[in-house]
Amino acid sequence: MTPAPPKDSTIINICIIPSDEVGKQCVGLSQSLESPGTAFVLDGVSKFAHMTVFMARFTDDNIPKVVAAAQQALVGSQPFLCTHTGYFMTAGRYLEASYRKSGEFMNLHSTLIDTLKPLRSSPGLPFEEGYFTPYTDEQRHNAETTGYDLAYGLYRPHITLTRYKEDQVPEIFPGFAPAQLNFQCHKVCVFKADNNGAVYEQLAEINL
After folding, report:
1. Phi/psi class of residue 44: alpha, beta or left (left: φ > 0; alpha: ψ in -120 to 50)?
2. Cβ atoms within 10 A of the Cβ of 147, count?
3. Does pTM surpass 0.85?
4. Is the peptide bond before 5 cis (omega within 30 degrees of 0)?
5. Average pLDDT by consecutive 10-residue portion of the chain (208 residues)?
6. Which domains are assigned to the chain?
7. For residues 51-81, b (16+ Cβ closer than 10 Å) or e, as one string?
8. Beta strands in 94-156 (DSSP E)
9. For residue 68, which phi and psi values (nearest 5 degrees)?
């Protein structure tokens, strides 16, 4: 792994934006968790609900190629149902709304990896991103071979609701009111993301 991110490089997060109704519900769930122990909550504006499909670091001069390659790779792709399955607290202190790892989801995930991994920065020797560290051996292998530590077997379709600060994870799992978080995926978006993986600038919207 390289000790620092390559100069003039940016994390690109290719993600699914849920329906407006599901997005609003996720914001409400997230805001219900706000406390001195949370690092952030969704607000629907600068921090909004999204579901990462593939994320990696690319040199800035390669970003137009990344956008064009993603658009070309998804020509002919069909809409599919994103099915909510519950909630999960990760080892990295993220609380997520989880979704079924369907065949359609994994086809989309694998297609984007296969298409975009040749364009990533520092192939085989990536910077260890801070949004989910320290890496396990499997995460490190995925990062080195694809640019995304949570690829393939580690991939979890999810919408992040919050992250808890160190030593602030609640002992009792939060209780949520029933929510209908299923939605039909009709588009995939390409965003720039900050060093925590949070999206902030949309570069493209690809209709399925």
Report:
1. left
2. 27
3. yes
4. no
5. 76 96 96 94 92 95 97 95 95 93 96 96 79 81 92 95 93 88 96 87 95
6. 9-207 (3.90.1140.10)
7. bbbbbbbbbeebbeebbebbeebbeebeebe
8. 94-99
9. -65, -40
